[in-house]
Write a structure and sequence with these properties.
Blueprint: H1 3-6, H2 12-22, H3 25-28, H4 38-43, H5 52-63, H6 68-75, H7 79-88, H8 101-112, H9 117-124, H10 128-137
Helix pairs in contact: 6-7, 8-9, 9-10
Length: 148
């Protein structure tokens, strides 16, 4: 495979995928989805369209303040699916830099208690980038990646 020549370090899921492509058909069948790591299994998930009742729910909840990340998790779809749904319905999207002001103090408290921006984002149903920017803009002294 030409892909090997471009990568210096192959991760186990990619190595397994390459192996499956180069094995004879009878040996490749032994690599069932259950035998593959989670990262590879998630690639096999099919895209699904939102039903009309889900679209109505997305629009209503988003306009009430829910984030795209929260809605995507609840409906088990990608955030991009939620965004495309909102755009198709003519909903004015909130700026990506806007942070729910009622959650800012909670984010600051969690971060100052030692949680990483990724953990704070997971707790609040936001993206790490939005949390990091909001904390920085609020004047919080940001830790480096090592946590010091």
């Amino acid at each position: 495979m030409r892909l090997r020549t471009f990568l210096s370090s192959l991760r186990p899921p990619l190595e397994r995928l390459i192996k499956a492509q180069t094995l004879p058909p009878q040996e490749a069948t032994a690599l069932t989805p259950d035998a593959l790591p989670q990262q590879v299994r998630t690639l096999q998930r099919r895209t699904r369209l939102l039903r009309q009742d889900e679209i109505t729910q997305v629009v209503t909840r988003y306009q009430a303040g829910a984030t795209m990340v929260e809605l995507a998790r609840e409906l088990d779809v990608h955030r991009g699916t939620i965004r495309a749904c909102l755009v198709a319905q003519g909903v004015v999207l909130r700026s990506g830099s806007s942070f729910p002001t009622e959650r800012l103090q909670e984010a600051v408290s969690l971060y100052e208690a030692g949680l990483s921006t990724a953990r704070v984002a997971a707790e609040l149903g936001l993206t790490q980038r939005v949390v990091w920017r909001a904390l920085r803009d609020a004047g919080v002294v940001m830790r480096d990646r090592t946590g010091s």
